[in-house]
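Predict the 3D structure for this chain.
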Amino acid sequence: MARETPPRIFSPTRRKAVRRRMLELQQAPDAPRYLLDDMVEDMLERLAFLRHQPQKALLIGDVGGALKKTLEAQGVEVTAAEPGAGFEEEAPYPFSGFDLVASLGTLDTVNDLPGALIHLRTALCAGGLLIASFPAAGSLPVLRTVMLAADEDRPAARIHPLVDVRAGAQLLQRAGFADPVADGRHLEVAFRSLPREIGDLRAQGHSNVLADPGPSLGKAALMRAAAAFEAAAVEGRTIERFEILTLSGWRR
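Done. Predicted structure below.
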């Protein structure tokens, strides 16, 4: 039976362009990095807890190389891959045999997530571990409300659909991982303005890459968005919430 073609929710071209822009913006010394930093810290804690000392690791989306530097200091041979530089997560990888594959903040915008997880498992050697973290369902509740206010009675798709913990666990099982674990945590960030939040998302590679991104917001819509954002503020700051889903599993 022919494999069913996944729906085209995200634009690979837009996705690559957003990642490339992120790589440029991350060159600034004050670039926001809190999402990636949280994922890196969490992955290192998991490796320590599991007492898994890899010898050969594949790191996908390790912008800035923080995880790479830490693992190399422990004697790990690291291969880095970046979707913005042309690495294709929905195709068979050109390398394999890793006892650790870590994916940071990229799997939320692939069209074929089950297929991408299968490629990740294939890249592992027997006994190898996958840890993948990315934004999950429940993220950006303020921004979602703000965009609805901006669009009024004609809401457009502007924010990505996201995977929740339950679906993540099912996807790991479907991809053939042993001892699959899916869990979530949240991160809250305070913003003084809507442009600042949009700028942070852009600088961290989490802006709109939908295949149908919706029409541009006009001046009146932008004013409604700004007003809705300010209405959500407490003492001059609006608290936004990011849900982070982490998937882990072994190849037996």
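The mean pLDDT is 95.
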